[in-house]
Write a structure and sequence with these properties.
Chain A is mainly alpha-helical. Chain A has 8 helices and no strands. In chain A, helix 1 packs across helix 3. Chain B has a 25-stranded mixed β-sheet that branches. The longest helix of chain B is centred in the N-terminal third of the chain and has 25 residues. About 5% of the residues of chain B have low confidence. The chains are: A mainly alpha, B mainly beta.
């Protein structure tokens, strides 16, 4: 006897919410189960009838999972290194951070032809993060960049009100990231500051995800 | 002469009003859908503008009824274990879609998923898992849900429910939690977070600019974490609260009604405090604030 797919699995498959592996598993079952295939068709018919309505609330991508524990396990960073040993990677990291941050911020604001808010981050120097945080920051920056590109493509689907809320709150978060990031660069052993920087990145990521849901 | 003219004018106004009101009323139509439904089935509801009111009940069926503008389609369908209901709103040039009001009755242990844009959402007497999203509409939850996940851009989130897990995320809306949760997380960017009269075992409350206020007891062995960048964090605690408290305040001020012994940190502008409130709760409270103020107040 074949176990049927659950309702959640059927809906997730029909709504195209699954990753490649889960999708393959479902498709393998559908290949041999008429009942589940009929269920998927029924769900798809309904979705088609609903037309342009949103299909799903995208699952939250929480990059923070495990980061707090990792930071807690990590010994205070950079304290035993000589300034000379730190200088080149630090400059490279600073340059990379500057490029990434400026590129995404510039693209976002320029494409949207919106005046930069008064409390922008332009007056806050971009400092190199301690090495222990760079990998996590890079992951956040990549995820944020990817989401921002998606939102730019879907901008037409966003209500003006949503764009306004998004831009106002992005500016607030960017300011917070810049300030806490600069503080962490001055006090690299401070784990609480590290958590606050990553927390602000997480907030930015989640805000972009929420905005995207409104466009779906 | 004038009095007659005024009476005629008034009569004309009345006739016009009587003529217009039915036209506006006719723009709405009543909808209703009823079907058998599994006690733990999955129901998805979309209504972008207006209101959605969901009530959990003990019957193995779903009823959706309401009032929908005539130019909008109401669609509902699915099977015993999965159902979707939606109001299909045609795009309008002015972007202001007229609202629909939907009233939904669902088995109280079902899985419920709701999405709105400006529609206000109210869920009550519901014991299952709830996932609700709104752009600017308010979301209010009452009852004893298994899991509650609420997300909004600017709408206020109001949780008056008990839930094993609670997640409330907003950008500029306020979050208010009044209830019980084994595991509660609330995040906001510029909205305020207010936790009052709550019994929370593990709680994490984060904002960027919004203020966070805790009003209530600290459960025995509770683990509570508060974090903000520029919002004030204010905890109103009973005098007999017992907890290990850790505060890291970088640029903001700190005030406490409780006696604390400060341990200075080197090379930081702010201060780090670790102390124990001597009650017998054995709880843990962690506070991080970059430039907002931190206050521990007796209540």
């Amino acid at each position: 006897m074949t176990l049927h797919l659950t309702d959640a699995e059927l809906n997730a498959y029909a709504d195209d919410e699954l990753d490649a592996h889960a999708r393959l598993r479902i498709e393998a079952h559908l290949a041999i189960c008429d009942a589940c295939r009929a269920e998927v068709e029924a769900i798809r018919s309904l979705v088609a009838a609903i037309g342009g309505l949103p299909r799903a609330i995208a699952p939250t991508r929480d990059l923070r999972a495990g980061i707090a524990e990792r930071i807690a396990r990590t010994p205070p960073m950079d304290t035993g290194r000589s300034k000379r040993a730190f200088r080149v990677p630090a400059m490279l990291a600073a340059a990379a951070a500057l490029v990434i941050t400026t590129a995404s911020a510039t693209r976002w604001w320029m494409l949207h032809d919106t005046p930069q808010p008064a409390n922008s981050t332009r007056d806050i120097p971009v400092a190199a993060l301690p090495v222990s945080y760079r990998a996590d920051e890079t992951r956040y920056l990549e995820a944020i960049e990817e989401l921002q590109q998606t939102l730019e493509r879907e901008r037409g689907e966003l209500a003006p009100q949503t764009i306004e809320i998004l831009e106002t709150n992005l500016a607030i978060i960017d300011r917070a990231i810049a300030e806490s990031r600069a503080a962490l660069a001055r006090d690299p052993a401070n784990r609480d500051l590290g958590l606050m920087v990553l927390s602000a990145y997480e907030q930015k990521l989640q805000l972009l995800q929420r905005a995207r849901v409104s466009a779906l | 002469m004038m009095a007659r003219f005024e009476r005629a004018l008034f009569a004309a106004f009345l006739m016009t009003a009587v003529a217009v009101v039915p036209i506006r009323a006719q723009a709405m139509r009543t909808v209703e859908y009823a079907a058998r439904f599994d006690a733990r089935g999955s129901l998805r509801v979309w209504n972008m503008a207006g209101s959605i009111r969901v009530t959990g009940w003990d019957y193995d069926s779903v009823i959706v009824r309401g009032s929908v503008p005539s130019d909008q389609r109401f669609i509902c369908g699915g099977g015993n274990t999965g159902m979707k209901c939606a109001v299909d709103v045609p795009p309008r040039d002015d972007g202001k879609e007229p609202g629909s009001s939907l009233e939904v009755f669902v088995p109280r242990r079902a899985q419920l998923w709701i999405k709105s844009s400006s529609a206000d959402i109210i869920v009550s007497e519901f014991n299952g898992s709830l996932d609700a999203y709104s752009v600017s509409g308010s979301i209010r939850v009452e009852g004893d849900a298994q899991a509650v996940a609420l997300e909004s851009m600017a709408g206020p989130l109001d949780v008056r429910a008990s839930a094993a897990t609670l997640r409330a995320k907003t950008a500029s809306g306020d979050v208010r939690i009044t209830g019980t949760a084994e595991d509660a997380q609330a995040t906001s960017v510029s909205g305020n977070i207010i936790v009052s009269a709550s019994r929370i075992l593990r709680g994490r409350f984060e904002s960027i600019e919004g203020n966070t206020t805790w009003l209530g007891d600290v459960m025995p062995r509770a683990m509570l974490e508060f974090s903000s960048h520029a919002g004030n964090i204010e905890l109103h605690l009973p005098p007999a609260t017992g907890a290990d408290v850790s505060i890291n305040s970088f640029e903001g001020s700190f005030r406490s009604d409780f006696a604390v012994a400060e341990r200075a940190r080197r090379d930081t502008k702010g201060r780090e405090l670790r102390f124990t409130l001597p009650g017998d709760h054995g709880a843990s409270i962690t506070i991080r604030n970059f430039k907002g103020d931190v206050r521990l107040l007796r209540h």
